[in-house]
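Changelog excerpt

This revision adds worked examples to the README so contributors can see how folded entries look when concatenated. The first example is reproduced verbatim below.
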Amino acid sequence: MVKISVLQHAPSAHLPTRPGDPTPTSRNLDPLMHPFARARERTRALNAAKIERMFAKPFLRALEGHIDAIEVLCRKPGTLNAVASGSWDGGILVHDIAEQKQVHRILDAHKGKVSGLCFSQGNGLLSCGVDTNIKLWDVSPRDEEVQQKPLHIFSGKSPFNSIDHHRSDAIFATASNIVQLWDETKTAAISNLTFPTAMETVTSVRFNPSETSVLGSIGSDRSFTLYDIRSGKAERRVTMQMRSNALAWSPTLPTLVLLASEDHNLYTFDVRKLSSPTQIYKAHVSAVMSCDWSPTGLEFVSGGWDRTVRIWKEGKGTRPEVYHTKRMQRVSSTIFTADARFVVSGSDDGNVRIWKAKAHERLGVITARERAAIEYRESLKERWRYDREVGKISRARHLPKAVHQAAKLKETMLEAQRVKEERRRKHTRAGESKPKAERKKVVLAEQS
């Protein structure tokens, strides 16, 4: 009898486990059998970087309704889609970001511009304006538009510039010529907070979301001040080189505060050491007017007088993501949505614009196979980010011609200033003039 040897394979290794699944393939993973694996992977990384830039279309929708410049935006805590906007025409709109439509409208809420907005507990919305009034509105959804009256009016003695609500208690803070604390159940301010030697106009005020008894404010005299509402007084105050236009507390690090400055930069400070910033963020070519943290605390958005919206990585001071359109004018307010997937901006042209936080992100339902492919491309770009061509494509950003020219001019001016200081130092007595670090130039004085 002839003996026959049979090669036997397990069917489970060569057949799909379920109907519709792809047929499994067997591969020899010996690197000697794949001499071009690295070259193929680099080509895939290059294609992934190109695909990202090809599909980078961040703009989603412009929401109309205001007839004048938008001054302030705020999102509703505990929701993903509710955003309120206040304008120079005195009107207030509440938008649904998910459905991309207007859900509530209050005409002539204030005489003059609406300078501050914040949501209170429930469906309440607090607004303040230059007419020296604070008004509490009910913004619960309505089927029809009616002439609405405020639930409550709080009267002040001077125009208000900003307002912010406490995270859990029924109190809120306002900024005018002083910082005041108000109770929703009382008609007059319950506390006045001011620094003994301060004479400035307070332009913005914000409660710390984690340490809720800590309050921060910025003023027209280039100051940043910390208050403790338990003691009812100002604790620390620093005077900076130029004035700040906006401040925002980090949602994940209670001691980290972000300031948007008139000198085209943004600064993060650790409130335990206010003598110098922890990081300087440089890219804007004009005054930075607004800033807001992502709920993750890993990135933040800023809007400036240069008509651009920029998204920054926390701790990385250069090369932010840049958003712009032909019709968008000077950006006065920017916020992240609560799910960190979208950015909302308000500008002088009266439109509220919705942008994707990741310009190349695909919206809608994504299958498991698509998700795996996206994650694979992301890992390829991360692994090959130091490659010359891959890095060049990933970093490339288109800028409007006016912004590009202004950036070149600013670079030339800064270089001329650096050369001038270097020459002055060369021609002075040794040790008399020492170079000063950039971070040490920001804060001029600190008081406590």
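The second example, added in the same revision:
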Amino acid sequence: MAVKRPAKLRVILTPDDTRKLILPDGIPKTMGELMDEVSKLCALSGNFRLQYQDRDFGDALVNLTSTTELEDFATIKVIPITDDCSQEFNLTVCDDLMPQSSDDTEILSSPSSSASTQTRMWPREFQIPGFSYDTELQLEKGNAVYRSDLTRLTLSSKTKSDILEKLAEEIFKYKAYPTDADFSDVAEALIKKHPCLSEPGSYNRCYGWKQRLKTKMGNYRTQLKGIGCSELIANSLKSKAPEDALPAKKVKRPRRGEANHIPDIPAGETIEKLENERLSLLSEVKKRNNRSVIREKMAKTFSLRRKEIVEKEPKIGELKERWPALFTMDEINNEFLRITTVPLQPRFLASLDKHHSKLIEIIRNKGGVVREKTQKILKVLDQSLEVNLKRECLLKCLTVYLGEDVDSLIKEYLVAQKEEAETELKRCAMAVFVIREDEDPLQPAHDIWIGIEGVEVLNELPSVAHACAMLFGLIYAVNLSYPGELKYTFDALQKIFMEIEPKKMTRKVCSLSAKL
């Protein structure tokens, strides 16, 4: 007779009330038995139904109709049913796992946000803004003439200046420091919308506009720096230490598509007020079921935190002492959303699932060292249908395919080897640590945690895939560089899976992207 293994479930009652359900005999076979256990734990008296995280939909919550959908450490949510709306269908998504558009707006456009806060990433197709009335009138007539006899419009300096000014303002809504490719996007979009502005002597008909935009954007940054834009002041010579007071030294620019790198202090706030909020946060994190207050205060202090992290570059240990709330799954997701405007965990997991079949097919067709190193990983993959284990195998195969060492990203130890794991933690820059009770990779891990700069920053994570998502988010949240031994893996995660700054890839990652 098989031995019953105990199970643990995370039960969400409200956004501020989450409980742990321990099932000594494992997950019940029927929905009735499970609902009885939930009712006892939470002292529920009315009717309710349950939802669970569906891995096929990026951990969105879906109505639970069978306990076979659940696994150990799963998350379920209680949905009350009233008599007058017993058939109500609720599509709520757990806000700590998948922020909705309303939450995005709350985080990015709340009263605590500044006017300079970006709310969107660089678009796939840049939209040319409207210009002044007289400029639009000239362009309209110029386009009509160009379509009839290909005669290009000759612009006055005033009209040209108006076009460049409006384009610079529109660019800054996305980025303070656009790349060469970004300028090309804007120039090409300009002549596509207004063909009368194309240049006959240019290889792509818009090279001159691209160069003018670069000059204009530099002038526009200088103008905003004089007004007091935080992201630009951080790179002024006055803001640098005497030994770093050179224009090209320690330039603090966004490196990986950060939309809000160093946001301005919100209107009506001061550094002193925000510092008091930070001190208040230290006591709030000690309270139970206090997530909404913490999220509000973390959003309010975002500008202070980014200024400290980017300009002062504190060590992880110091950051954990000053901002303990940042080192939770909830706030890593929220912080990543504030910085990039992209949801972290939902997109990360959904993208792994989306590319799984094709990437595994590519890896199975490889020979040589890749086949040799992925043989054991693929054997585990073939023996399991568990979604998180499939994601773990995919991440390991991805690392091997890109010519990097899996052990640099995921370090696995037995419970008896915990001292060795702690010793390795002190040596490594960043990694995911997996502690197992035995050597069977098909069994759930005893513990999964993240170590950065010798500090354990997050533990008791539900899976290796979740841990890798949180590690990726932490790199953005605390402004770290990708480790050299994993630069291709993280570049692929950023540009292929998370689709952040996908235009500029390393050759190896670009080759993989083309195959996918």
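Reviewer comment on example two: Residues 207-227 form the longest helix (21 residues). The first strand starts at residue 7 and ends at 14.
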